[in-house]
Design brief:
The structure holds 2 protein chains of 2 kinds.
Chain A lengths: L2 H32 L7 H32 L6 H24 L7 H6 L11 H25 L4 H15 L11 H35 L4 H22 L12 H11 L2 H17 L7 H26 L1 H7 L3 H30 L9 H33 L5 H9 L1 H33 L3
Chain B lengths: L8 H4 L2 H30 L14 E8 L4 E9 L9 H17 L7 E2 L2 E2 L13 H11 L4 H10 L18 H15 L24 H12 L1 H4 L23 H9 L3 E2 L2 E2 L4 H10 L15 H11 L13 H7 L1
Antiparallel strand pairs in B: 1-2, 3-4, 5-6
The chains are: A mainly alpha, B mainly alpha.
Chain lengths: ~450, ~325
């Protein structure tokens, strides 16, 4: 095994741990809707939940690339040592940042708070010192990939896409630093980071990772994989770059964004539909035969989850005429959960299974724990998504459409039985999801302990 | 292409063809985005076509339906000073900058939303300056004569002036920071948001239909006006909002218990049913120094009568009392 692959496994292990952290924070946040005022303030649990999401997915992505890179290029990754140092720095930084969130929580309205406690911008709450750390980690990651390709004097289509994608991955993160006075301008740039990472850069990155995984999982020919990847890039960026406009409906930006954002984001499901076709087609040509069923199942969950959660759930609320009512309600939360789960989480889990199997000699995963994990995690997620959608639609109706969007309308909608039931059901399915997580950890540890 | 218009397999099967497609599509989109960004940034600078200058905090800000657009728009009126002083452009800029840092340092966006972006645990703050709740709830509750005064008092001690079971935590906001926050919210309410959030403050308050029986009207009014704190089942929230159901235990700080004891609603650690006169007194005038606001100038006599009648006969309270609108009028 290459040192790069061992580093990849470390990233996977940390990713699964931080998935657990975000899960616990998520349960606490969900509970606050049912019974307010337990334990931490809602904002702190929410921050750890969404920042933990970013952390574990980024770790999963980096782990996947460190895992696949030597195989793709036929040589050891350049700078594995630096990558390893960065891994430990990242883990330590996340723990310190989360610790400060829990213990200190907030500072006074000055620069000190922004540098050392909390930047208070959604998804990029991490204080500036930690954001510098993220830039360093991503830079080393990018350098290692480019330097390895240069040393190997080899280039593949998948790697070329990956390397170009690294530029916006690092560059966009610089949006995490400034504190712009004007909220409209602040959010304008903030969406460049949040949308362009999640709905463009990350989609391309996971596309590359899925391409690399499919070649191993189903022996799909490289030519097919690369054609699909290019089509996906064209569709993702062709719809997603101006699809950015669906975040510019209500932040003060000009009215033309209603048309542009609505039109282009209506097409955003296309690449995701393409991915489903691609995955199903490939699996069909192989008659679903594989040596790693958990990984294939998660890959199928990725394809369908991305299309349904990202594509359909997003489409459902993206036209401005609907978004006026749905924006910023639990409807958004339903879409957010389903999309991140389908587009990224399932893909990372697929690669984790692939890597753990290879690291343990390639024997087919046995036992039924992986089935329990797969079923409970997906049922838990679907249950949460459905419950949130119910609450979100009730909220859009009672708070916005007939309530008039005031504080009183907000309170009345949140107290509405349909809304309240949805939140209780969401919490219940959160526990189902947590049970699935326990099965997942148990299964991965069992596979890991098996002799190579 | 052949005569049937089919693309030969040699091109469609060639990755280079699709690569060229991916690159050119991406470049075209990026160029379009660059032009739109230049235009948008000009429109949303403070003082641009859609975002007001920071000195708008010296003016009255209204919100009215625009028939041509089909949604409500901010209306900038004449001078209406904030905290009784007129801010020069540089002062207004400094105040807004301070307000933004308070918003970030307290991570307001991780409970609330701004322009609908953020977390969904607290209300959206886009038009918070215009929310009727400051006048209806917090001005009486904080005993302040102005909206901005009530906002400052609330922001400094949100846990002392709760209006709901989800109590905003005390985030150590000092007076200077609270003033900056209020200025920020006032400025933000004047941004043209294409009518978001929908129908803001444009809807009539739902009122009990006249044909409802007294009990139904009372239950509905209780749910609308009282249940956010005292809960629909009348059991309140431990430590914060007392139950209305007599016989229920309630523990809370002395500050909250004392007025209940004085008015005859609390004895030996439990809620007891006080007199009709005292009940009406509390509903009409609130309890000073606590979160309980007076409803005398917000609800009509029939609604208050329905609420008090309902509360005295629901949740296991069996007084048999019927309170009429005339009783309420007499108590006023």
């Amino acid at each position: 095994m290459y040192a790069s692959q061992r580093l990849g496994l470390k990233y996977f292990a940390a990713a699964i741990v931080f998935l657990g952290v975000m899960l616990v924070a998520g349960l606490a946040a969900a509970a606050a809707f049912v019974q307010p005022g337990v334990l931490l303030p809602f904002s702190i649990t929410k921050i750890i939940h969404i920042d933990g999401l970013i952390v574990w997915l980024l770790m999963g992505f980096m782990g996947a690339v460190y895992w696949f890179l030597p195989g793709e290029l036929g040589c050891e990754t350049v700078g594995v040592k630096a990558g390893e140092v960065m891994f430990w720095i990242l883990c330590a930084a996340v723990i310190v940042v989360f610790g400060v969130f829990v213990v200190v929580q907030y500072g006074a309205g000055d620069e000190f708070a922004l540098w050392f406690i909390n930047q208070g911008r959604k998804y990029v709450e991490a204080p500036r010192w930690a954001a510098i750390g993220v830039v360093a980690v991503l830079s080393v990651f990018a350098y290692n990939i480019v330097a390895t390709a240069l040393r190997a004097r080899r280039m593949t289509g998948v790697l070329a896409v990956l390397m170009i994608d690294l530029v916006p991955l690092v560059a966009l993160y610089f949006v995490a630093f400034p504190a712009i006075d004007n909220m409209s301008v602040d959010l304008y740039w903030w969406w460049w980071l949040v949308h362009m990472w999640v709905e463009a850069t990350w989609e391309v990155l996971i596309g590359c990772i899925v391409a690399l995984a499919l070649m191993q999982l189903l022996n799909t020919p490289r030519r097919i994989v690369e054609i699909w990847l290019y089509i996906e890039v064209a569709l993702v960026l062709g719809t997603g770059i101006l699809g950015l406009g669906h975040h510019y409906f209500w932040i003060g930006t000009p009215t033309y964004w209603l048309g542009i954002g609505g039109l282009f984001s209506a097409f955003e499901p296309l690449p995701l539909l393409g991915m489903v076709v691609h995955a199903v087609y490939d699996a069909g040509t192989q008659h679903m035969k594989t040596t790693n069923r958990p990984s294939l199942y998660w890959m199928m969950a990725e394809a369908f989850g991305n299309f349904l959660g990202g594509g359909m759930w997003g489409f459902m609320m993206t036209l401005p005429q609907i978004n006026l009512y749905s924006h910023g309600t639990q409807w958004t939360v339903s879409h957010g959960h389903f999309a991140f789960w389908g587009a990224y989480a399932c893909g990372v889990l697929s690669v984790v299974y692939l890597a753990v199997q290879k690291a343990r000699g390639g024997a087919e995963p046995a036992g039924s724990a992986w089935k329990w994990a797969f079923a409970l995690l997906n049922i838990g997620m679907l249950g949460m998504v459905g419950a949130l959608l119910m609450s979100g639609m009730a909220q859009a109706f009672y708070e916005r459409a007939i309530g008039g969007s005031t504080l009183q309308a907000f309170i009345e909608a949140q107290s509405n039985p349909w809304f309240a039931q949805g939140m209780a059901v969401r919490l219940a399915f959160g526990f189902v999801f947590a049970a699935g997580y326990v099965c997942l950890v148990y299964d991965l540890l069992t596979m890991w302990r098996r002799k190579a | 292409m052949d005569e049937l218009g089919r693309v030969p397999a040699s091109v469609a099967g060639d990755p280079a063809f699709w690569r060229a497609g991916a690159i050119s599509t991406t470049l075209v989109m990026l160029v379009v985005l660059a032009f739109l960004t230049i235009d948008s940034l000009d429109a949303i600078r403070a003082g641009g076509a859609r975002v007001p200058a920071y000195t708008v905090i010296n003016q009255e800000i209204g919100y009215a339906h625009d028939a041509r657009l089909g949604h409500a728009m901010p209306v900038i009126g004449g001078e209406q000073l904030l905290f009784g002083r007129k801010y020069a452009p540089a002062e207004a800029q400094a105040l807004i900058a301070k307000g933004k840092r308070v918003i970030q340092s307290r991570a307001c966006i991780d409970c609330h939303t701004f322009f609908g972006n953020g977390a969904y645990y607290g209300p959206d703050l886009t038009k918070a300056w215009l929310d009727p709740a400051w006048r209806e709830t917090w001005m009486p509750m904080t005993r302040q004569a102005t909206r901005e005064g009530a906002m400052v008092e609330f922001l400094m001690q949100p846990d002392r002036y709760p209006n709901w079971s989800r109590v905003m935590p005390n985030l150590g906001i000092d007076r200077e920071e609270a003033i900056a926050l209020v200025a920020y919210l006032k400025w933000m309410s004047a941004v043209d948001t294409n009518g978001f959030p929908a129908n803001f403050a444009m809807m009539q308050q739902t009122r009990p239909a006249p044909s409802l029986s007294l009990a139904d009207a009372g239950e509905r009014a209780h749910t609308t006006h009282c249940a956010a704190c005292h809960q629909a089942d009348g059991l309140g929230v431990p430590g914060l909002f007392p139950p209305i159901a007599s016989g229920e235990p309630f523990t809370a700080p002395e500050r909250l218990l004392k007025p209940l004891i004085e008015r005859g609603f609390y004895k030996d650690g439990k809620i007891v049913q006080g007199t009709v006169r005292q009940h009406l007194e509390i509903v009409l005038r609130g309890i000073p120094g606590t979160a309980m606001p007076g409803f005398g100038d917000r609800l009509d006599e029939a609604t208050i009568a329905a609420i008090v009648t309902y509360q005295r006969n629901a949740f296991g309270n069996r007084s048999g009392d019927t309170v009429t609108a005339d009783d309420v009028r007499a108590a006023r």
